[in-house]
Hints:
Number of strands: 14
Oligomer: single chain
Number of helices: 3
Strand content: 25-35%
Order of helices and strands: EEEEEHHEEEEEHEEEE
Largest sheet: 4 strands, antiparallel
Structural class: alpha+beta
Helix content: 25-40%
Amino acid sequence: RPVLVAPVHYETLSPQRSFVGTIRPRIEADMGFRVPGKVLKRLVEVGQTVDVGQPLAVLDEVDLKLQAEQAAAELGAATGVLEQASAAETRTKDLRSRGWSTQAQLDQVKAAADEARARLDRAQRSVELTKNSLSYARLLADSRGVVTATLVEPGQVVAAGQTAIRVACSAEKEAVVAIPETLVNFARSGAAYVTLWSEPGKQYVAKLRELAPTADPATR
């Protein structure tokens, strides 16, 4: 009677499996203006490569310049008030040393001078803030990458922090792979490798970064 004969040998408990994945940037930054305003120009398009410090969009600077002029005017006024208060304080101190003024008058003049100094300090900080606001009117790329989305158009009014341009950083990439639930434990402990269709002869070692229960797991 014919029989089927096969040699006995050891095999790995879990055979190798391959899955199709997607290569994508590790970091994708949503960039927005730090001040509110009206978009004057958008300088990039989707798919364009940008470098560090390259302008992406520009806000209308009319209101920001008016705020800077107002802060400069307040600084000038505060400087004048402080000069008068300092001169009055000096005269009162001299009169007090000669006995021609009271301590109450000196305290009052000193309080006015301190208030003038505080007003000048606030005016100086206001000037610095308006200068920073003017620089924030230009949205600059903080890393080299590729523009993946443009969410603003010229003429659009945006709020501070609103996403305007999305840039995918080109420094680091990851592979996103969907695996069956039954292989989750093997994915935690097993070794993984990545091969590209464009380079079928090369194999890259992958390190598990995240297992997401409601989204695609990612390896890099």
